Every structure is written in C-alpha cells, then in structure tokens.
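S.,

Sequence below, as promised.
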Amino acid sequence: MAHRRFGADFTDFIFTRHKDRLAHPNAYLIDDMPFNIEPFIARNGVGVLFPQIWNELAHIEDPVPHVINTLEAAIGRQQ
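The prediction came back faster than expected:
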C-alpha cells in the first residue's frame, strides 16, 4: 500500500498514533502536535515541536531553520 503511494524506495516507516512507544535516548520525533511530543520526551526521546499556526510556536515564520537549530542543539547535548 505505502509503496504505491510513496515509491519502491519507501521501506523504513511506521504508522502509529502511539509515537511515544518508539522513544529512547537516540530517537528523535519532529511533530506539530504537543500531545505527541510531550509523551515522547517523557519516555526519554528527543522531541522537537514543528511550528504551525495551531501550536505555541506559531510566531516562528520559517520553521525549517528552527527545527534544524533545535536538532543541532539536542545532538550537541548528547555528545
């Protein structure tokens, strides 16, 4: 099913509403919903909230640099 939509190279994927179950110290979740990020962090994953108009980061005009900077900071803390 997913291959028809995303192509034959799309092999590493997990579809779930329970993203927190995948959390561990070397797991990163980028999501636009705080209710996904918070439990992920609680289970020792690294969660990055993607700015959207419906979350508290709506004031960030260009979300991509924000996400990159946040990820770089998180990776730096883990090294």
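Helices lie at 2-6, 34-42, 63-78.

Coffee later?
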